Amino acid sequence: MNQQKHWYDYLFIITPIYFGLGFFNILFAWVGLIFFLTPLILACTKWNKIYCNRFCDRGQFFALLGGRFGLSRKKDIPKWMRSKAFRYGFLVFFLVMFLVMLWNTCLVFAGARDLTQVVKLLWTFKVPWHFAYHGTLFSPGVAQFAFGFYSVMLTSTIIGLVVMALFKPRAWCVFCPMGTMTQLICKAKAHE
Question: With contact defined as beta carbons under 8 Å apart, do 152 and 31 qualify?
Fold first, then answer.
């Protein structure tokens, strides 16, 4: 039986567009805040985890690549990866890396350090990305945030692609920091 497609079934296209735009102009990385804030806002309202279940472009992208295009081994996700300890540990690690990125941005805004035109992959490897920034009327701190945020988004997507290839297409969703945060919000709301 063929189900009718909805507009949100095509959101997977956002992922390659986002990274493509950021490749040519790093300031487009700011758009990623939409994907960062929307799940949290929806979870705080009556919508709960609808973002993860229906609107997540990255989850759809992994499902497309791993499912329809067969780039996944479709193996079960290891038990340790599904454990609360791993999910919460990864969330804490992710939040610490995000705070470090914000701290570096604040230092550039304050003039305490210069703009670093690199993208950090896996929080470690510095890849020169100067071609994607051409200066603007804005403070260099605006660009520093963009470089940092693009790094976070690219790193999490690379991790998602690796676990998609090794396990099931949406393996990333099991320990996605946004999914874990929205789940915590939903649990807190249930106990109110």
Answer: no
User: What is the number of other CB atoms lying within 10 angstroms of the CB of residue 42?
Assistant: 19
Mean pLDDT of each 10-residue bin along the chain, 192 residues long = 84 97 96 95 92 95 97 97 97 95 96 95 91 90 97 96 98 96 93 76
Q: Could you give the maximum distance between any two Cα atoms of the chain, in Å?
A: 61
CA distances from 48 to 22, 38, 83, 86, 176 (A): 30, 11, 21, 22, 16
Burial profile 63-73: b = 16 or more Cβ within 10 angstroms, e = fewer: bebbbeeeebe
191 Cβ partners below 8 Å, 6+ apart?
none
Report which of 117, 45, 89 is spatially closest to residue 180, judged by C-alpha positions: 89
Say which DSSP state 130 is in: G
Report CA-CA distances (Å) from 112 to 100, 107, 108, 146, 192: 15, 5, 6, 18, 44
| pTM (whole model) above 0.85 | yes
